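Hi Y.,

Following your request, here is the sequence exactly as I used it, all 183 residues.
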Amino acid sequence: MQKIAKVHHRPIVGVMGSGLDAHRELAEPLGRWLAGEGVHLLTGGGQGVMAAVSRAFAETPNRQGLVIGVLPLGDDPPYAKDGYPNEWVEIPIRTHLPFSGPRGQDKMSRNHINILTADVVIALPGGDGTVSEIMLALNYGKAVIAYVAGEDDIPGLPAAVPTTENLDEVKSFVHAAAEVLGG
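Below is the corresponding structure, written out as tokens. Let me know if you'd prefer a different format.
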């Protein structure tokens, strides 16, 4: 019997953050840098940070990865909520899962898919939904870092999560995580 060769995939970096505020000063440089790293970008596919990082990633010349969006259930065909996916999502993953926000750790939350699919998680400023994704990342043993402009950018951020205001520190974190993952 022939063995199946190990499949190597392009790393997937999940960027989580506010669905309302873009935090462009953080999201855009991060998106451009990730596009040059040969990774796929994964977000929740909506507006705010998700759209800002996706746009910067998608518009970077010579990028190799794709923009993936894990979409929440909506009411009308094609069953994605209003504002989902943002225009830069290239691979929309439509789910039957409605919850995020304060219910983001519920079993019926798409946040589980976001975190389980990502190899590394970067949290930008956000609220309850972002905190729930961070908690899931910790629970699932994912490498996670908070890239914020100030201490209060993610209310309720667990002390176990490293934080930085410096993109170079995010880069070092992601590279170290990739080495651990064998990338």
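The longest strand covers residues 12-16.

Thanks again,
Q.
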